[in-house]
Amino acid sequence: MGHERQLVKDMMEPRHFRTLFISDVHLGSKAAKADFLLDFLRHHEADTIVLVGDIVDGWRLKRSWYWPQVCNDVVQKLLRKARKGTRVVYIPGNHDEFLRAFPGMHFGGIEVVERMMHDGADGRKYLILHGDEFDVVVRNARLLAYLGDWAYDTAIRINIILAAVRRRLGMPYWSFSAWAKLQVKHAVNFIGEFERVVTEEARKNGADGVICGHIHHAIIQDMDGIRYINTGDWVESCTAVAEHEDGTFELITWRALASSVPALAAIEMHDEGELAPQAA
């Protein structure tokens, strides 16, 4: 049991990174996996945390107020990290665009900026932005964007029902909305075009790479000499991007990691006669 006990302690010990990038949490939406993000923040520390837009879902909150305690817990966790010395930068997206009226302002130690240039540990420069300004639908046809948002909500509702059924059958989580999106030719073409345009924006700004969110499609790839990084989301994929001290980047899927912790904690409880301590 000694090896398993050490493995539990290693996994419960927070990992520390130079920078963490998180986007598209959509707090205020019933589809937001705020509990997963809260767990992630308990197990990960960084010198800098960059929130790359759509952290709060103002669109959905305007339609119907939904703000459970776990949403407060996520906000408080970020504020607590800021108080303890972590630099927290908030780049608003289209769903939390109300914050774009406050560039340069600080709220509880969290700094709001429209976009920023990040100096990587390896000397590379990365343009960081949410990315909605390159989404023609959001920029030029707000009504169509809202209709698309409604369709996405419907797919997410199907997700919730399927997830409940699959849990009862002992099957792993599977995202219907993510699958459906990738089956639609226009959606796949849009993702490719979005990546191309955002990468070109980085090139125009003299950057070696770009870090963005918006399209809920997590990936790290090189495109014509520019590093393209999308942080994904906390509605479907539950992903974040971490920069190590040497400047390398890692795409973290928290659902996959978190699923193994309870089983390991059970080993710890069986061996020690008590639950393994929770991370702060």
Gyration radius (Cα, Å) is 19 Å
Helices and strands, in order, run as HEHEHHEEEEEHHHHEEEEEHH
Terminus-to-terminus distance:
25 Å
Average pLDDT: 81
Estimated structural class: alpha/beta
Helix content: 40-55%
Strand order of the largest sheet: 4-5-3-2-1-11-12
- Give the tally of β-strands: 12
Specify the number of helices. 10
Percent of residues in β-strands? 15-25%
Tell me, briefly, the overall form: globular
Describe the structure.
The chain has ten helices and twelve strands. The protein is an alpha/beta fold and 280 residues long. β6 (116-119) and β7 (125-128) form a beta hairpin. α1 (2-12) crosses α10.
Compact description:
Pfam families: Metallophos. With 280 residues, the protein is α/β, with parallel strands linked by helices.
Helices and strands, with pairings:
Elements: H1 2-12, E1 15-22, H2 34-43, E2 44-51, H3 58-63, H4 69-83, E3 87-90, E4 106-107, E5 110-112, E6 116-119, E7 125-128, H5 136-140, H6 142-168, H7 176-183, H8 185-204, E8 209-212, E9 219-223, E10 226-230, E11 239-243, E12 249-253, H9 254-258, H10 261-272
Parallel strand pairs: 1-2, 2-3, 3-5, 7-8, 8-10
Antiparallel strand pairs: 1-11, 4-5, 6-7, 9-10, 11-12
Helix pairs in contact: 1-10, 2-4
Descriptors:
10 helices; 280 residues; 42% helix; alpha/beta; 7-stranded mixed sheet; manganese; disordered C terminus
